[in-house]
């Protein structure tokens, strides 16, 4: 009887979670793995180039802070807390299936935090006098890193205080995080779009990462919307906005990459054409370098005679 009274407040939600949809479960697992795999090309590109040049510091700052807001949002969202509370009375499989939405956001946040660390670790440390005024400085990179960490700590502390002392305002706090994160995500790609446009190249930014993430963002939005409904609009709205803006950046990056390859092929063609023309001249006069050498010798002799 006591157990029934304890479980009664969340019995409705727990009944829904006790029969997970296999298709949604498999799709959620694939999305989770897709999020993880999609960030690996970006991590590898920065490490292999040993440089984070071409990545906007403000893109990293906005991406990290919006990701922190998104993760804190889904952890404090009433629907998420109900799902986690149901784990006390559900099987392990049912609990994992119900918490996959939280895990997806957590993995995305963790992967972007890795980008933050790699961005600072491999930031170009050239002397300030060798940099143009428009290029970011190492001091700016440190400021971005510290600001992101301070924002993370403050968000965590405020969330804990509201959970334990002001629980009635938890839903409002969750929606505030979602709205704030959406605003940050809405402008996250604007600095990177401007940086990429100014450089006319991708730099250390990974095109394969965006090729995976751009369509994956919309699949993820659909999965989160199906799980949390309109009540969780502040959660999946973030990824809807970022998916659209990332698509714009992807189109720009592919355009610059194709243009660079065309220029490279044209340059190689010009070199080859020049070599063939020179060879034809040699074959055509029947003497080639012999005549040239003879003229050179004559010039030298005339010079000596003078």
UniProtKB/TrEMBL annotation:
* Sequence intervals crossing the membrane: 22-41, 53-76, 96-123, 144-166, 172-190, 211-230, 236-256
Q: Where in the cell is it found?
A: Membrane
Segments for region (Disordered): 286-306
The membrane-topology field of this record reads: Multi-pass membrane protein
List the biased-composition ranges (Basic and acidic residues): 295-306
SMART domains found in the cross-reference section: CTNS
Gene3D superfamilies, from UniProt? 1.20.1280.290
Q: Give the matching InterPro entries.
A: LAAT-1, PQ-loop_rpt
Assign the protein's first listed, main location to one coarse class: membrane
State the UniProt keywords alphabetically. Membrane, Transmembrane, Transmembrane helix
* A Pfam cross-reference name: PQ-loop
Q: Which PANTHER family match?
A: PQ-LOOP REPEAT-CONTAINING PROTEIN (PTHR16201:SF11), SEVEN TRANSMEMBRANE PROTEIN 1-RELATED (PTHR16201)
* Name of the protein in question: PQ loop repeat protein
Where is the organism placed in the taxonomic lineage, from the top? Eukaryota, Fungi, Dikarya, Ascomycota, Pezizomycotina
